[in-house]
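Pilot study result, target chain (321 residues):
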Amino acid sequence: MTAAIDPGAARVLQLGAEAGGKAFEEGTPDEARRAYRASYLVLQGEKEPVAAIEARVIDGPRGPIPARLYRGTGAPERDAPALLYVHGGGWVIGDLDSHDDICRWFANLGQCVVLCPDYRLAPEHPFPTALDDCLAALRFLGAATEELGIDPARIAVAGDSAGGNLATVLALHHGRDGLPRLAAQLLIYPNTDARQGADSYRRYGEGYGLTARTMAWFRDHYLTTPEEAADWRVSPLLADNLAEAPPAFVALAGLDILHDEGDAYVERLRAAGVPLAVSRLPDQIHGFASAGRFIPQARELIVEAVAAWRRFEAYEQPPIE
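Predicted structure:
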């Protein structure tokens, strides 16, 4: 490696190399899920206690969707902020436990309610199933404000990587078709362009954790045809109009194959006049927020995201046409 790298991130990469094993794309999705579970149990940050955790099942257009509901310490019983958190994992791996630490951090730091849906994964359930499940989860959150003690004006979405992709697309749907108006979107190294042609795929395609080959494997499991990569619901960078998107916090890892497409999305939001906060972490790798045991910046990033969310709540958004 020639680029500067955070010592904790370097340690995470070293642990991955020492563990050996085959790359995700060299095996089956089930093998990738087992390998990912073994890795995240080693890397996760502290599982902070929260005020309450509850299992939920949400009705979705393709069947029931398991979900986990967190109420953070200090969250009010009435008019609490609420967050839909969409986990990453390339639309193929990840579950309710893989991002449990991040959901707990958000719940406590935001003194809020967090809902994390266990959306269906590809290739068994290709696009747009994951999106449909997440839309159903957001619709549930907006409809359950009385039951859950949520302030309907203080709902946000968040996600990382492929979860950031889904959260970005949810944000472009907000305020329509029974979905709540969102106060913020909190995007952590989001995937915004499934065409995978950005220069960061060349700069960081090997040696920094997530490789270009693995990312292509994820995408090809998610999509049923190559043409779907040009659908804005897969590649939100290609959406016609971002002007009605909610205020955005975007975190970009400098040593990440997804860096340039995330940066391009930031510039499109800026050009559209969307209120924006950008966290640039030049020495970090993709997935660092899920490695809190070794990378203190993981939890610090959530502190920053919540602070941006609070600032955005004071912004009066234009009407959605």
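One observation from the pilot: The chain has a mean pLDDT of 96. A full batch analysis is planned for the follow-on phase.
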